[in-house]
Amino acid sequence: MIPPIANNFVAGETPRSALSHVEDINQQGVAGILNLLGEHYEDPENAREDTQEYIELAEMISSRDAVGCISVKPSQLGIDIGADVFEENLGRIVDAADCRVWVDMEDYTTTDTTLDAYEKYTRQTDGNMGLCVQANLKRTGEDLERLADLPGKVRLVKGAYDEPPEVAHKDKSTVDAVYKDLLEYAFREFDGGIGVGSHDPEMISHARELHDEYGTPYEVQMLMGVRESAQRELAAQDIPVYQYIPYGSKWLSYFYRRVRERKENVAFAARAVLTS
């Protein structure tokens, strides 16, 4: 059972609890992106099991008319086992899902394989997919040039992996500047829409300015449990907002990672413990 404090960041352990959370935030004008927790599998059976749950989850989203979609991790679908395993499992999900299928981006060693699989399937679905790209990677500008010619959406995030300096920008101010530049390129060159994956008010404001200039549709994507009042405020301004919603039995490591990442999350957790 997930303790109350972790429930702020994780929507339970079952698809049913996760969908109930989606339906709750739908009432506030916020859509959901559901992610089953799990990553870096070495056993193909684990990857097959999560693949099947994603297929069933997509069917549940459609049957309950929830405003939401799904997001999968390559290492959860077997990319560490083999590119063919990952591609096959991703293909099964894409074939079965009526909702958009987002593909998360993990560490830099998996970027090429992830891009290749995404390109294959987003063409087959005429763009009913989305891909996450990370501004801290030095290669991302070239990757966006490739993605601009494909149907589908792109979610731009700053990047959370501790990558080596040979491949990634390490200074926060540099990453912020690069994020703005990449965001402008995406608004200028993409037709399918942009996912602004950031909690940073400066980046969200910049996206709004770019939308006014270029007219490109966009949505703001934030994590469950982080700046949720801002999510509701943006939705009330008719800005499409999606909340990234993790769920599943592997919640503990994810919860601690969220708490460690940001000082305000530590303070939030401390307050919750003291008042529970």
UniProtKB/TrEMBL annotation:
One GO term (biological process): proline metabolic process
InterPro entries in the record: FAD-linked_oxidoreductase-like, PRODH_bac_arc, Proline_DH_dom, Proline_oxidase
Residues in Proline dehydrogenase domain copies: 19-270
Enzyme's top EC category: oxidoreductase
Molecular function terms from GO: nucleotide binding; proline dehydrogenase activity
Catalytic activity annotation: L-proline + a quinone = (S)-1-pyrroline-5-carboxylate + a quinol + H(+)
Cofactors (names): FAD
Enzyme nomenclature, EC number: 1.5.5.2
Name under which the protein is recorded: proline dehydrogenase
Source species of the chain: Halovenus salina
Lineage of the organism: Archaea, Methanobacteriati, Methanobacteriota, Stenosarchaea group, Halobacteria
